[in-house]
Structures are given as structure tokens and as C-alpha cells.
Specification:
The complex is a heterodimer of chains A (179) and B (102). Chain A contains seven helices and no strands. With 179 residues, chain A is mainly alpha-helical. The longest helix of chain A is centred in the middle third of the chain and has 26 residues. The chains are: A mainly alpha (179), B mainly alpha (102).
């Protein structure tokens, strides 16, 4: 098997972007920088989805995460956080404990995966099925049969409505108190 | 085609990077960012398993779509709460939340 193919190089670059962005966004002291590194991570993950030829999911990731949620973060940082003032005086021992917890978790999961995991199914994935077509996604989301998801779809709609109303109510509490 | 283990390793590392951030950060917005990292790691797992084990079905695909939507909703509500905390206490660190108990 050839090691240096375009596919592998792209995957390596994407994984570096994803992990590096995540690590920097967690480690940096400034919140705005953290938001930008988070952007790198999200875009990299969208690239991973594209590489698995799931392009609608990549588009959703880009538009909802990188476009929507990240904007929300940046707005919140600008509105709430006093930029320049560093509110992150985390004690070093707390960071050490967090690092120990994270490293032990990584070790546990990776050991379990490689000692007891049985990854023989890879060969079947070699023939790339072409992109999942939109019709299948639409029918799966809006169908009522087996393996179709109309009810969760509607529940998501209700969740979004509740979330809009809830956010408005919570954010407006102060005014109500004054009246 | 990249072996599925690589995706799993990436998602494991990303998940625990998120856990590290969640433990070590003091800022509420920073905590929320760490949660986003964790959710994304889980999404990678769903999608990779879907793609490699059952390429003709799209269960994991749909599930990660739902996860994205729920994450958006959660972030919006959390932002509203953070605004409120900021208005009441003047900063947005975890310590100020303690006072909500009274």
C-alpha cells in the first residue's frame, strides 16, 4: 500500500489543523484567540467530513458551527468579556490535574481500542460509495417508516422554538424586574 | 482510504483536549468552547463509524446532524445565561455562579 498519496497528505494536514487548533484554543489565555483557534478546528472537521465524501454534513458543519455558533461566541466575548483584561489566572496545579486527567483518559481509551478493538471491516470501505445523495437524506429525515426520522425532526423544531423563547426570556429578565 | 482507527484516534485526542479545557478553564465562555470540542469529537466518531461500517445506511450521519442542531440551541441558551450572569455580577467566571445559590 502506498503511503504518500494525496488522500493521506490531506488527511495528515487536516488532523494537524484539527488537533493543533483544539489544543491552542484550550491552552491560550485570551478568549478571542481561543475563538479563532476553535474556528480552525471546526473547519478542519468539516474537511474530514468532506474526505469521507459526506458533503452535506460538511456544509452543515461549516454553516451552523463555523458560521453560526462561532459568531455567537464572538458576540458573547465582545459583549461580556473585557478584552485585554485577563480573567484567566488559573492556578498551575489545577492545570496539572486537568492534564493528568486528560492524559490518563487518552491512555485508557487508546489502550482499550488497540488491545481489544477488532478492526477488520476496513476492507469493505475501500470501494467508495459515491456521495450520499440529497434525496436519501431528505427521505430519511422526513419519512415515517423504519430507519426514518420524522419524529426527532419535529422534536428538534420544538426544541429550537423553545430555545428561542427561552433565550429571549432569560436575556430580558432585568427589564421585567424593573417594571 | 484511511483506516478507521485514525479517525478514532483523532476523535479521542480531541475529546480529551476538550475535557482538559473543561477542567482547567475558569471562564464560562471558555467552558462552552470546550464543550463544543467534545461534541465535535463525538460527531467525528459517529460519522467515521457510519462511513466505514455501514456505508449504505446513514444513521450516524443523521445523528450527527441532530447533534449539531442541539449544540446550536444549547449555545444560544447558554449565551443568554452568561449575559445574565455578567449583568448581575460584572464578570463571567465560574466563581460568580456560586452566588446564585442564595
Amino acid at each position: 500500500m502506498e503511503l504518500i498519496t494525496a488522500n493521506n497528505i490531506i488527511f495528515a494536514l487536516l488532523s494537524v489543523v484539527v488537533l493543533g487548533g483544539g489544543l491552542l484554543s484550550v491552552l491560550t489565555e485570551k478568549l478571542m484567540h481561543a475563538a479563532f483557534y476553535l474556528f480552525l478546528t471546526l473547519v478542519g472537521i468539516a474537511g474530514l467530513y468532506l474526505q469521507m465524501s459526506y458533503d452535506f454534513l460538511a456544509a452543515a458543519q461549516l454553516s451552523v458551527y463555523a458560521g453560526g455558533i462561532l459568531m455567537l461566541f464572538i458576540f458573547a466575548i465582545v459583549l461580556v468579556h473585557r478584552i485585554g483584561e485577563n480573567s484567566e489566572h488559573v492556578r498551575i496545579e489545577k492545570k496539572v490535574w486537568a492534564g493528568i486527567a486528560a492524559l490518563s483518559g487518552i491512555a485508557l481509551v487508546l489502550c482499550t481500542m488497540f488491545l481489544f478493538g477488532n478492526f477488520s471491516a476496513d476492507a469493505s470501505a475501500d470501494q467508495l460509495v459515491s456521495n450520499v445523495n440529497m434525496e436519501l437524506i431528505g427521505r430519511t429525515l422526513l419519512g415515517t417508516g423504519k430507519h426514518q426520522y420524522l419524529l426527532p425532526f419535529e422534536a428538534t423544531g420544538i426544541l429550537l422554538l423553545a430555545c428561542i423563547i427561552g433565550a429571549l426570556v432569560i436575556a430580558n429578565k432585568e427589564k421585567e424586574d424593573k417594571e | 482510504m484511511i483506516p478507521v482507527q485514525f479517525y478514532l484516534v483523532i476523535s479521542t485526542l480531541l475529546f480529551f483536549i476538550g475535557v482538559f479545557g473543561f477542567i482547567s478553564r475558569k471562564n464560562l465562555i471558555g467552558l462552552l468552547m470546550s464543550i463544543e470540542l467534545i461534541l465535535n469529537a463525538v460527531n467525528i466518531n459517529f460519522v467515521a463509524f457510519n462511513r466505514y461500517l455501514f456505508p449504505e445506511q446513514i444513521e450516524g450521519y443523521i445523528y450527527s446532524l441532530f447533534v449539531i442542531v442541539v449544540a446550536a440551541a444549547e449555545t444560544a441558551v447558554a449565551m443568554a445565561i452568561i449575559m445574565n450572569v455578567y449583568r448581575k455580577f460584572g464578570n463571567e467566571t465560574v466563581k460568580s455562579i456560586k452566588e446564585l445559590k442564595n
